[in-house]
Amino acid sequence: MKILVLGATGATGRLIVNKAVAKGYEVVALVRSKAKATELAGVELVEGDARDAAALARAVAGCDAVVSSLGTPMSPFREVTLLSTATRALVGVMAEQNIRRLVCITGLGAGDSRGHGGFFFDQLFLPLMLRKVYEDKDRQEDAIRASKLDWTIVRPTVLNDKPARGVIKALTDLSGVHGGTIARADVADFVVQQLTTDTWLGKAPLITW
To answer: To bridge 84 with a disulfide, which of 78, 108, 134, 139 should be the other Cys (CB 3.0-4.6 Å)?
Structure first.
């Protein structure tokens, strides 16, 4: 299997790349600068902007699937459009090249998972620091849902850098969920698994410990 990873130089993206390479997958990473992505060993690097359809088309050519782990910094005041703009471009390019499988990471607080982050996250952190980011995550999810791709949206709870436990909860019924945390390594494992299973196809599971 050959896959394209967006956001490959991020903390979670690097782990996804490592997991995929360890499975024997061919991995392509679209990066802003090859010089700043030298830690991605065994990966084909394509330089370009994830919002640029031409760059996406070059990067995804010959791939069987795409993983998006794109992230963006907190932005309390400035509008955020990176995630939705890149995702709309990606969906179009994948449709043109008949590449159907997309696994995309958004987060707890996106879509119908809003209100399940616990008091501090829901009442303080998200509205004060992450509102603009999550508005764009919502637009990102909408673009994926409106596509005809074989998609899975993965919504991790708060990420940490602890060792993987290897056992997680994946939920679409969020009754009783009020926050949580999960290791990036466990998120990476789950994301790579979704490339070859239909268990969560067309769904947006929240994953947590």
So the answer is: 139
